[in-house]
Fold this protein.
Amino acid sequence: MAQKPQQFFTNPEFASLTRQRVIRVIIILIASIFIIRLGFLQIIKGSDYRVESAAQAIKEDVVEPFRGNMYDRNGELMVHNEPSFSVHLTLNEFHRDRLPLLASILHTDTTDILKIVDRSKNFSPFKGIKIESDIDFATLSQIEEYSDMLPGVEVVIESKRLYNFDCNMSHFLGYTREITMDQLKKRGYFKQGEIVGQQGLELSYDDFLRGQKGINFVAVTRNGEKIARFNSGINDMPVSNGFDLHLSIDKKLQESAEEMLKDKRGAVVAIDPSNGEVLALASKPDFDPRKFSGKVPYDIYDALQNDPGKPLYNRALQSYYPPGSTWKMLVAIAGLSEGLITESSTLVCNGAFQFGNRAFGCHGKHGAISVRQAITASCNVFFYQLGLKLGLEKLSYYAKMFGFGEQTHIDLPNEGSGLMPTIAWLEKKFGGPGRYPKGAIVNYGIGQGEISVTPLQMAVYCATLANKGTVNQPHVARAINNNQVHKMQRVDYAIKKLPIEPHWFDVVREGMLNVVDSPSGTAYSARIPDIKMAGKTGTAQNPHGQDHSWFIAFAPYDNPKIAVACIVENAGFGSKVAAPIVRDIIAQYLGKASVKKDTTQVQPKR
């Protein structure tokens, strides 16, 4: 009988326990090696491989937000947007030999594109950099036509500003422009090519207006062709448009203010005395913000920078002028508060005030005159004497109380503070203790000499006189429309009550009323039928040319709704040029369609 073949797998020696243990150990070792390797790849090196993989297969498509709109106090749209197209280039996808083609389509030179690329060398090569803004439809069509030959080049939808008014409003609106390299260094969270606010409200409220970019993650081929949304869009970040600003500006009043300053150098600031809201803020010369919407050629900005009229300079906030006779109400309140004069006491004006070897002149001989009459007639001699009685320390104290010598903290950038001299300042200027000319204080009584103010400070000062001692922080933005929570949020501002007896405000206000209402007043020609207006003329001495023309006023007298300060450079007496501008602005705001001009002059107007 044939012997059965040996059963190999049932051989007890081959299947011994020792051999089984060895096999188990080998299997465990192999499995452990695989597990360790997988752990190394997934955990330790996973992030590196993930970044590299995403850069090749997943692309971030940035969705630019639309910038917030701006509305005037009556809800009229003033600033909005329209779509604009820009060209972006992703360096790791772009073929350098296609540069001449791209330059030809963009009507530029290859070196210009390379300069932009060189400035962006510190940014990620996997993200697009802007190389051209606001392209036209023909350029857009060519880029689309040659898209197969221009890998890494894409058109991104952005927006550009549109303006819905018949003036400029440039100094408080500001403008938007591509971020500069210096700004990028200071604000590292931005990237090259982004549009940011550069001046005015566009800068002050940039964080609210700008919005938040969205990101769509898309799968792309090796050649950069988009083929699908990554992960069905679950990882996308939605875009959030900017918040809308609702302003205190009255659009029609602003248009009128700018028209009245046409071909002049100066500024107008109108404020609501009850809350500090800025109704109009005009500075001339100015510029058209529309020139900064979309693509901005360098020669436009250079031309504005080099213009001798300084149109980029906001005279309402930044220019310093002596306040002239508009300062006299402050000196009167200081004298009344300190008990140096009463409302009925008089000082004598003989046409000049002798101090040392110098005679300080007046524009008339007013005789014995009270504080109300001195304001009405703008008597210099009265205020020479009162300023000297007060002394510089008291003058400085009251000037600071009203906000002179410091910023008003309006919600606009680059505000100046003016100057109210102190004894220490004068001693430093003139070379030591006690060496300053004592006659300087005589001049300070009428707002001349080293005292300097801004038109905005003068408007706030006029509003404070109108409401009898409440200083409201001036502001242009009334509310922000938060589109994320769908809520209109009021903007809060500071309020300060001056520690001055209200009756003293009544005294100076009555003097200001007579400036306009009385035939002996210096602004009698500026009166408005059926509206009681209180005001004060001023002529600011200018050592470099003809004097500047000041006028400040508020109305209606019993319930002030508007306070205005106006200065026109090199225009002479305040009653001649500045007063008619303020009169017409107040008349328009209070519903007077036209004002008949009265040219009656009783005496030289200051």
Notes: The chain has two domains: 59-247, 253-287+315-589.
